[in-house]
Amino acid sequence: MNVALGVTYSAAAAAFDEVASSYDEQFTHSAIGRVQRAQVQSRLLATFWPGSRILELNCGTGEDARFLAKRGRSVVACDASAAMISLAKSRRPDESMRGSVEYLQVANEYLDLLAVKKPFDGAFSNFSGLNCVADLEPVARSLANLIRPRGRVLLCVWSRMCVVELLWYLLRGQPTKAVRRLFRKSSARLGQRTIPVFYPSVGEVRRCFAPWFRFSSRRAIGLFVPPSYLDGAISKHNKILKRLESLDRQFAKWPVLRDAGDHVLLEFVRCNP
What we know:
By secondary structure, the chain is of the alpha/beta class. The protein has helices at 11-28, 31-47, 63-70, 82-90, 137-146, 163-171, 175-178, 202-209, 231-234, 238-251; strands spanning 53-57, 74-79, 100-105, 120-125, 147-158, 185-190, 193-198, 213-221, 263-270. The strands form 2 sheets. A 7-stranded mixed sheet has the order 3-2-1-4-5-9-8, with helices on both faces.
C-alpha cells in the first residue's frame, strides 16, 4: 500500500526521506532521545495490554513498534516517508518478539485507506509527527472510524511553550527562536530542507478530537530533560540527566508544568458511536 506518491508526496515526507539513514544516530539512540522515548513508552505499556492491536502514526524507523511487539502487542506502523518505512522493514526481527509488526507507507492525511485493517484497540503518534499536519480534525475523524469504542489514542506533540527552550535561546541572544512555538505556524530545518511545522494548543487538539473522543489526561514529556538538540551539552553528564529524568517523573502531570515541556502527551478515549 503506497499512498504518498506524485503531487501528494509532502515536503515533510521528502525531508524525512533524506534524514532517514541518520535519524536513529541523531535522535533515537541519543541520550536525550532514549530518555524522552522511555517516558512515552512507559505510558504505551500502561495503556495497551498484551494482545492489543495498535495503529502507529508516523512510525519513523519503527523503534516504538518493535518495542511494543517484543512485549506482546501487534502494531500496524505507518509513515509517509518511503525511506523510513524501507529502513524499518530492513531491521532484523527480534527472535523474542511475542507480537507482530506490519509496516505500511501511509501518510496521516490518508488514514481512511486503512479501513480494511480495522478495528484497532488504539493508536498513538510519538514525537511530533502530527506537528507536520496543518489540520488535525480529518486525522481525528479517520481515527474514529478505525478504533473500537473505548479504545485509546495517545498523541505526543510539541508543546506551545517549552521553558528549557525559551531560556536556552534567550540566554544565547536569539529571542525569535525563543518564542517560535507561540506562533501556530513556523518552520524547521530538516537535513537540507525547510518544512512547515504547526504548534496547536492543547485546547485546539481537544476541539479537533472532541466529536469522537473524550479527553482523558495530559503530561509533559521532557519537562526538565531538554530538547534533543541539546544532547551534545548534556550527554556527557549522565548523573545530571538521570536527575532531570527523575524530576520529569515527579512533576510531569502538575498543572501548568504539564504544558511546559518539550512535548506534551495527550490521551483520548474513543466515545461510543
